């Protein structure tokens, strides 16, 4: 009879026994490769979904910001010249070539376009809102050089579609109000065209002036109205209306209004010289108004001033105090600010506005 050997089986102590695992599940130490892959893939999918959600949120925020900036007209793009139409709005510009256009072209050649034009998308193209001279300069540069790479497209701020025609006119007018060379005749002609346009909300000349020149002071609006009435009376008989000084135009209108029976004589004189020069037209108007050339500038005999006389002012500007002095042929402004850091075009607009206020009676 064979003896059976008894083997000792060593069981672990209770404190070292592995934790119980529910039936049907894998122990962490015995997890299958498939289960690990599935878990890792699920985690990767969760991370990817979270990343895509963040990207969508960022894209939505960027889209809303783009729309906001576009409404402000600060979104700029390069627009082909052929896609821009300048006929949508009547322009407060005299017909004929601008004498200062060559200076603008030289500036654009040397330093580029400092201030983009403004356009609004319409019917597959763009309608010009602001920047007629800048657009004209680019078109002439393209015609002169044939360089479409440099001059075939122009920087343009995109005005969001949907703005009313009245708002588009106001954009154009407010930009040009500080322009040094715009005349009362040009502003009056624009008001007349605006009132006659059936698409605008202004049925009368007074309503057109009130809408277009809301930012101008009351006296200036009166001048524009009187120039418009003068243009109503003289019509196409005038050939150089933008050259009429403010004082002369107002005097012509006063006589037309006071003595309407004298108007046919003036019209006859103008029509009798169809090829007259600008100087000749001004002479005929002066004769009619009974004015001398120096009176057109509102010239008055100035009070005697002591040699070297000076006017000084102190003007509060925020938390700072600006020191201003004026003498014969010279003005000086002192402010703790580096004016060389300001864009040249912006400085020019500020100086132009300053001079316009001085000339405004």
TrEMBL record:
Q: Which GO terms describe its cellular component?
A: chromosome
Q: Name one GO biological process term.
A: chromosome segregation
Per UniProt, residues of the ParB-like N-terminal domain are 77-176
Q: Transmembrane residues, as ranges?
A: none
Q: Where is this region: Disordered?
A: 1-36, 290-309
**SUPFAM superfamilies reported for this sequence:** ParB/Sulfiredoxin (SSF110849)
Q: Gene3D superfamilies under this entry? A: 3.90.1530.30
Matches recorded under PANTHER family: CHROMOSOME-PARTITIONING PROTEIN PARB-RELATED
Protein's name in the database: ParB family chromosome partitioning protein
């Amino acid at each position: 009879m064979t003896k059976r050997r008894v083997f000792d089986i060593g069981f672990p102590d209770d404190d070292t026994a592995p934790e119980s695992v529910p039936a049907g599940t894998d122990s962490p130490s015995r997890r299958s490769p498939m289960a690990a892959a599935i878990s890792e893939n699920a985690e990767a999918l969760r991370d990817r979904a979270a990343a895509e959600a963040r990207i969508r949120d960022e894209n939505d925020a960027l889209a809303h910001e783009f729309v906001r900036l576009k409404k402000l007209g600060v979104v700029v793009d390069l627009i082909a010249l052929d896609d821009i139409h300048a006929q949508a709005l009547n322009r407060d510009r005299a017909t004929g070539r601008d004498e200062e256009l060559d200076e603008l072209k030289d500036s654009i050649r040397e330093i580029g376009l400092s201030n983009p034009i403004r356009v609004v998308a319409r019917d597959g193209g763009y309608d010009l809102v602001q920047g007629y001279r800048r657009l004209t300069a680019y078109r002439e540069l393209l015609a002169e050089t044939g360089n479409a790479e440099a001059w075939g497209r122009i920087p343009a701020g995109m005005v969001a579609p949907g703005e009313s025609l009245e708002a588009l006119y106001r954009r154009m007018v407010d930009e040009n109000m500080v322009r040094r060379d715009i005349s009362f005749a040009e502003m009056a002609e624009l008001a007349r065209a605006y009132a006659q346009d059936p698409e605008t909300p202004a049925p009368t000349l007074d309503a057109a002036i009130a809408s277009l020149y809301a930012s101008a002071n009351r006296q200036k609006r009166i001048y524009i109205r009187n120039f418009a009435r003068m243009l109503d009376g003289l019509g196409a008989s005038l050939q150089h209306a933008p050259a009429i000084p403010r004082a002369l135009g107002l005097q012509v209108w006063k006589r037309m209004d006071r003595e309407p029976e004298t108007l046919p004589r003036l019209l006859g004189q103008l029509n009798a010289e169809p090829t007259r020069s600008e100087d000749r037209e001004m002479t005929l108007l002066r004769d009619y108004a009974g004015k001398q050339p120096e009176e057109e500038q509102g010239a008055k005999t100035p009070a005697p001033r002591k040699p070297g006389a000076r006017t000084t002012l102190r003007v509060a500007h925020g938390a700072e105090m600006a020191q201003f002095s004026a003498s014969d042929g010279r003005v000086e402004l002192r402010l703790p600010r580096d004016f060389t850091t300001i864009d040249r075009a912006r400085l020019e607009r500020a100086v132009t506005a300053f001079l316009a206020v001085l000339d405004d009676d």
